[in-house]
Amino acid sequence: MNKRAFPALIGLSLLFFGVAPILIVRAPYEQEMGLIQKIFYFHFASWMAMYLAILVLGISSALFLFRRKPSADRLAVAAAEAAVVFGLMGLVTGPLWAVKSWGVWWTWDARTTMAMILELILVAYLILRAYGGPGSDRLAAGLGMFAMANLPFLYVSTEIWRTIHPPTSVVPQLPVDFGLPLWWSVAGFILLCLALLTARSRLEEERATLDRLYLALEDE
Amino acid sequence: MQRLYDMSAVPRERTTAVRRWALIALCVGCLGILGAQTADAAQPTQQSAPDGFVPMDDVPAEEQLPAAPLLAAAYIVVWVIAIGYLWTIWRRLGSVEKELADAMRRVDTDGA
């Protein structure tokens, strides 16, 4: 990855995050939920960033598995870690919203349960990479593709199953007053995700260089 | 002639002790009666006990959770997670770069 990409991406994301609170404060209160609905702007955006990271994970895993590209594997590890981070943000902000709106911190409905399972799949990927030993990279690649296959089901879960979670279909129909802070926050989170992916990929690349150097030293 | 119930025949210390205990018993008795009356007053009059918890339709404002601390907590958590993760990457990168520099030095030394 380009070394100059990280400062540019993190700078842009900070710009977006600097303006986002102004837009969120100026956004109108939702009629039924009131002030607590404003969690939505970061909650939804963190899931969008997680979706992006999982897409990168799935595609990179497929490239590594079928084309044997080591650079794709390194990107997959970076994407899995970023997906766990953004998933954690979603899983923490969700209950903070739910306790006010639904009266409970957590409910095992289709959307929340699927989100929890997806997060656990990603954690399993990282554990496999850390402790799996030789050959675990290919097993993990399969798990990464499996995580990506879960994405469409997670996205449409509120439309298919009866759930108390707000449906995803409300997002495209949002009025401008609600839509502008939302999409602005989504852009900020996407940029942050790309910045984290760049930094984490660089770490993996340097680790790979270090491994090659140690192998060269052992051969001598 | 000495009367049968002449109190003067009882020693003075004993009569004082009896009086003291009688006074204490009277006070305790009064307090007991008063307490029982208060408890009776606090009891609901012949209400049928509910089978379990009964949900309340309109939650009073003072019983509701405030939204602002939850909203603030959500935004703080997001920032703490993002900055924390970025910090771990920076730390790991620093450690690998240091190790990489050491390895390069060893390669150069061995090559020379």
What does the model show?
The complex is a heterodimer of chains A (220) and B (112). Chain A is mainly alpha-helical and 220 residues long. In chain A, helix 3 (70-101) packs antiparallel against helix 6. Chain A is built from six helices and no strands. Chain A has helices at residues 5-26, 40-67, 70-101, 110-131, 136-160, 176-219. Chain B has 112 residues and is mostly helical. Chain B is 68% helix and 0% strand. Chain B has helices at residues 12-42, 67-111. Chain B is elongated and about 115 Å long.
Could you tell me which chain pair has the largest interface and how many residues each side has?
A-B, 33 and 27 residues
* Approximate helicity band of chain A: over 70%
User: How is the quaternary structure best described?
Assistant: heterodimer
Number of DSSP-assigned strands of chain B = 0
Instruction: Give the percentage of residues in beta strands of chain A.
Output: under 5%
Q: Helix count of chain B, per DSSP?
A: 2
Counted beta strands of chain A: 0
Radius of gyration of chain A equals 19 Å
Structural class of chain B: mainly alpha
Percentage of residues assigned to helices of chain B: 55-70%
Shape of chain A: globular
Biggest sheet of chain A, in brief?
none
What low-confidence regions of chain A span 5 or more consecutive residues with pLDDT below 50?
Answer: none
Distance between the amino and carboxyl termini of chain B: 136 Å
Poorly predicted ranges of chain B: none
Keyword list:
heterodimer; A: 220 residues; mainly alpha; globular; B: mainly alpha; 68% helix
Give me the secondary-structure topology.
The complex is a heterodimer of chains A (220) and B (112).
Chain A: H1 5-26, H2 40-67, H3 70-101, H4 110-131, H5 136-160, H6 176-219
Helix pairs in contact in A: 1-6, 2-3, 2-5, 2-6, 3-4, 3-6, 4-5
Chain B: H1 12-42, H2 67-111
